[in-house]
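Subject: design request, 288 residues
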């Protein structure tokens, strides 16, 4: 399966934070959800993908190419959807088209007007009059109008009302009918990804905890509840993290088959949501 993005042993160090020898692959034709708490390293990783930051060590490749020798070719093929307006606020969409269009060899005016119509965006109103949701649609229309193969979205649903968030997710699902398009979707609102993501990459404290398919996560991760008498040094090895209370324990496992073998029907097993996984991982993490 072809990788559109590859970060190979990437390290980036700041005064009080670092990305630590990250290996990340984004597969062609799928939606990868990029999750983690604020400050986990998501935006830093995306900036390195966009060549806005350079790694201190390691390689960043998009479409099998590196930015050192193929920057223009890479940027022709990616579209970045911002979580707010990045254009001069007095411009309207027609102005932006005239500025942005000539920068791309594959810019398609017809497609641009199709998306403007589909997204119900006004052509002649200043961007500053757009709601946050409309600004998001405008960024997406521009990205799609130069036939971007990789759409990178950094917290696109943050600050949007629930109805508009759902509408945006419907748009993204529709876009993925074309198997040649790939979406990399960074968010801390994990419920959005339950509907559209094929893969989940989870960052915490500058480390990539895992990068797995939704199917594998559902197969391996679970919440387990039972009595405290079931816990000892050996049985606890089946869990990523355990929370104890006077009434019993609740724990996250990333090895559901082992839990079933060890505990049988003496525990309650429930599906772990992405939010559950993020919450419990704060207490103890097994890095890949």
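Subject: RE: design request

Done. Sequence follows.
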């Amino acid at each position: 399966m072809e990788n559109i993005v590859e970060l190979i042993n990437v390290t980036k160090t700041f005064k009080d934070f670092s990305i630590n020898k990250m290996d990340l692959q984004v597969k062609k034709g799928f939606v990868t959800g990029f999750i983690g708490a604020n400050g986990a390293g998501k935006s830093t990783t995306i900036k390195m993908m966009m060549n806005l930051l350079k790694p201190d060590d390691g390689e960043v490749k998009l479409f099998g190419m590196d930015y050192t020798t193929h920057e223009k070719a890479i940027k022709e093929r990616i579209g970045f959807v911002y979580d707010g307006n990045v254009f001069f606020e007095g411009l309207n969409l027609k102005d932006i088209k005239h500025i942005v269009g000539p920068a791309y060899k594959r810019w398609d005016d017809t497609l641009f007007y199709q998306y403007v119509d589909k997204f119900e965006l006004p052509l002649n109103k200043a961007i500053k009059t757009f709601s946050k949701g409309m600004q998001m649609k405008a960024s997406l229309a521009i990205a799609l109008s130069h036939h971007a193969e990789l759409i990178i979205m950094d917290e696109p649903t943050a600050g949007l009302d629930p109805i508009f968030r759902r509408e945006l997710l419907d748009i993204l699902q529709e876009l993925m009918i074309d198997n040649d398009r790939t979406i990399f979707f960074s968010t801390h609102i994990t419920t959005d990804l339950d509907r559209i993501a094929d893969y989940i990459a989870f960052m915490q404290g500058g480390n990539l905890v895992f990068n797995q398919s939704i199917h594998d996560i559902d197969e391996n991760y679970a919440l387990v509840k039972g009595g405290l008498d079931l816990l000892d040094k050996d049985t606890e090895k089946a869990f990523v993290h355990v929370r104890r209370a006077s009434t019993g324990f609740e724990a996250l496992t990333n090895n559901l088959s082992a839990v079933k073998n060890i505990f049988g029907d003496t525990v309650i097993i429930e599906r772990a949501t992405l939010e559950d996984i993020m919450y419990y991982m704060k207490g103890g993490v097994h890095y890949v």
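The two ends are 20 Å apart (CA to CA).
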